[in-house]
Design a protein that fits this description.
- The structure holds 2 protein chains of 2 kinds.
- Chain A is an all-alpha fold.
- Chain A has 2 domains: 64 residues, no CATH class; 39 residues, no CATH class.
- Chain A contains 3 helices and no strands.
- The radius of gyration of chain A is 23 Å and the shape is elongated.
- Chain A starts with 10 loop residues before the first helix and ends in a 6-residue tail after the last helix.
- Chain B is mainly alpha-helical.
- Chain B is 78% helix and 0% strand.
- Chain B is built from 22 helices and no strands.
- In chain B, helix 1 packs parallel to helix 17 and helix 7 packs across helix 18.
- Classes of the chains: A mainly alpha, B mainly alpha.
- Chains A and B meet through helix 1, helix 2 and helix 3 of A and helix 2, helix 5, helix 6, helix 7 and helix 9 of B.
Chain lengths: 103, 563
């Protein structure tokens, strides 16, 4: 728990954090109307650099083991297999418990 | 309700409020009030996420729905594990790293102020109404059990919940959710055990399963491709996927949860926790409804469970018709009881019972027709649809649950309601203060000022929910009402976030126009077609992404030409 707290954050996150005044956690200081002229809207915000770049960054930070799983990819794979198994189990239960049921 | 039941019920209230206040003692400032200083452990967030979604509506409406319609509703939840994976990969990292207070704050950074304001406004509108319905559901239980006026019970519950949420903020909300969710797990177990214990001697688990199977009550998966059918595997996987992405990814009541985590990893783990536990929990809750259906093969069920609806028809010129239906209902039930006993006797002897199955199925269908006819009378007299489905489980616990357990189950239903209501009003409060008050009306004030305004906003939304709750009884099945309200906005809100994450060229004008187009298209689809409301989210999200991309591209091209 909290093992990634001390890890370096991506540059855009650090930039966003530095902009915040005490007691101000964003919003007002980053409004579209107050943005310097010529600045591309959203450049400093995660997401504006593209989803795949952001996900590669997230993957780099999250490559550590998660409990018994070697990486997050294993966690996600397990959840997907679980979801498919649940559907399969319900199909079987429907057939077994409702003998008259026509799927 | 005996003294013991009242004692347990009162113990719950005192315990949960004290615990909430104790846990929130270290909260400092607005960040403490809305984000618990970002130090909540993942398992507590996971339980809180679960508790927020599992309201009293889940307990009351879902069991009633399963009593009438079997396990089919489970298909609605089948996409949840897949949605959680997408949320962990796509949504959570963006919100967490942006260090925002609300999901809509992210939209201002990514797009512009008007997109944030519009998204925040839609959230306030839809969830404000949702909070009212959440408040109304347990009031039904109390009105049945105690004979209290629904308005009084709504008021009492709103007061308690608003009080501890106002004082303790999100920390109080999350930690009470943890307690309340554990109580809900216990309540499910108690309800199931009590149902089995109340069955006649000689009727075992196998018999219960068999009787439920006669009417296809265990049928969990429907492969029908009919888009007008609400609960099919496809509507669940496609419509449900979009609904859960929208709910867990763009609804402040959920986003606020995982923003309280100490790390990105903890945020993700809280959602993975839900991916594994949510579907089994819903299976158990729906099973309670199916077991009630079987239980009432052996006990005379009321034709209409809601005493208020019965009273309204009895006081009308249609009272004679209702009495005739009730008499036939009692007679058919008696016939079904005899046939069921005969079937079980022969089944225990290993004989072929196919003929008895057909006979009982015929009785079941006739009873269903009679119930439907009675609901029609209620609708005719009241001028609006019957919501009798929500009275099935409360009626059972009042009449058949033993002393002590009744108070416990009452507390569980209250816990479920309060754990959802507190989450909604704190989310509504955070969006009101952060996305509107601080953004548009009062910038640069002190932390103490924002904290005071946040508490006042919490109180305001509690009052608003109270007002909506007074009219919630006219909305039919509660579980569907909440989801239907959400579906008019959720898909379009999801579309805006998908635009932000996946379309690099998207801009604020595109997002705003896309959002309005998405909502307009959902409105037109709801008026002009019969497709299931679960697909509204798909339509809304797709239209927003398509229109938003086109408008963004168009405005950029025009801007480039102008330059």
């Amino acid at each position: 728990m909290g093992r990634d707290a001390g890890k370096p954050e991506p540059p855009e996150a650090r930039g966003a954090a530095r902009e915040q005044a005490p007691g101000d956690h964003g919003g007002a200081g980053r409004s579209g109307s107050e943005r310097p002229a010529g600045e591309v809207p959203g450049r400093e915000v995660p997401g504006s650099q593209g989803i795949w770049a952001a996900m590669r960054e997230a993957d780099r930070l999250e490559r550590e083991p998660v409990g018994p799983f070697p990486s997050w990819a294993w966690v996600y794979g397990t959840v997907i297999v679980y979801g498919i198994l649940v559907i399969g189990l319900l199909v079987i239960l429907t057939r077994v418990l409702d003998p008259g049921s026509a799927l | 309700m005996t003294h013991l039941d009242w004692g347990l019920f009162a113990l719950y209230f005192v315990g949960v409020v004290s615990f909430a206040l104790y846990q929130s003692r270290r909260n400092v400032g607005v960040e403490g009030y809305f984000l618990a200083n970002r130090r909540v452990p993942w398992w507590a967030i996971g339980l809180s996420v679960m508790a927020t979604q599992a309201s009293a509506i889940t307990f009351i409406g879902t069991t009633g729905q399963a009593f009438d319609d079997g396990m089919r509703f489970i298909q609605f939840y089948l996409a949840l594990p897949f949605a959680m994976v997408i949320l962990c990969i796509v949504f959570v990292p963006f919100f967490y790293r942006a260090r925002v207070f609300t999901a809509y704050e992210y939209l201002e950074g990514r797009f512009d102020a008007k997109t944030r304001a519009l998204a925040g406004f839609l959230f306030l509108l839809s969830r404000g109404m949702g909070a009212g319905i959440i408040l109304y559901a347990p009031a039904i239980v109390l009105s049945v059990i105690l004979g209290w006026d629904e308005r009084l019970t709504i008021l009492v519950m709103a007061l308690v919940t608003v009080a501890y949420t106002m004082v303790g903020g999100i920390t109080a909300v999350i930690w009470t959710d943890v307690v309340q969710m554990l109580m809900v797990f216990g309540g499910i177990a108690v309800a199931l055990l009590a149902l089995f214990a109340n069955l006649p001697d000689g009727v075992g688990v196998g018999d219960v399963v068999y009787i439920g199977g006669i009417q296809e009550m265990w049928r969990s998966v429907d492969f029908s491709l009919d888009p007008t059918s609400t609960y099919t595997l496809w509507s669940g996987l496609l419509g449900g996927l979009f609904l859960f992405l929208a709910y867990f990814g763009t609804d402040q009541s959920q986003v606020q949860r995982y923003l309280t985590a100490a790390s990105l990893k903890d945020s993700r783990l809280s959602l993975i926790f839900n991916a594994f536990l949510k579907v089994p929990m819903q299976v158990l809750i729906l099973s309670i409804g199916v077991l009630l259906f079987v239980f009432y093969h052996f006990e005379q069920p009321p034709l209409v469970f809601s005493p208020a609806e019965v009273a309204v028809v009895e006081a009308s010129p249609l009272a004679g018709e209702l009495r005739a239906l009730q008499e036939e209902h009692a007679q058919v039930h008696g016939d079904r009881l005899a046939a069921t006993r005969q079937l079980l006797e022969e089944r225990h002897q290993g004989a072929d019972v196919e003929e008895w199955r057909s006979v009982i199925k015929g009785y079941d269908e006739r009873l269903r027709e009679l119930r439907s006819g009675a609901k029609g009378l209620v609708a005719e007299v009241r001028g609006r649809a019957s919501n009798d489905v929500n009275y099935v489980f409360p009626t059972y616990i009042v009449q058949y649950i033993p002393v002590g357990l009744l108070g416990l189950l009452m507390a569980v239903i209250f816990a479920a309601a309060m754990s959802s209501l507190d989450s909604e009003i704190t989310a509504l409060s955070s969006a009101t203060v952060m996305d509107f008050y601080r953004r548009w009306f009062r910038q640069g004030a002190s932390d103490a000022h924002y904290l005071l305004v946040s508490r006042l906003a919490t109180m305001f939304w509690g009052l608003f929910a109270f007002g909506v709750a007074l009219y919630a009884g006219q909305l039919g099945s509660l579980i569907e009402a909440v989801n239907k309200i959400g579906s008019f906005f959720y898909g379009s809100l999801l579309g805006v976030f998908l635009l932000a994450f996946f379309v690099r060229a998207a801009n604020g004008t595109g997002a705003t126009v896309g959002l309005l187009a998405g909502m307009g298209s959902v409105f037109l689809v709801s008026l002009g077609t019969e497709i299931s409301w679960l697909y509204y989210n798909v339509v809304g999200a797709m239209v927003v992404v398509a229109v938003g991309t086109a408008v963004s591209w168009s405005t950029r091209v025009r801007g480039g030409e102008a330059a």
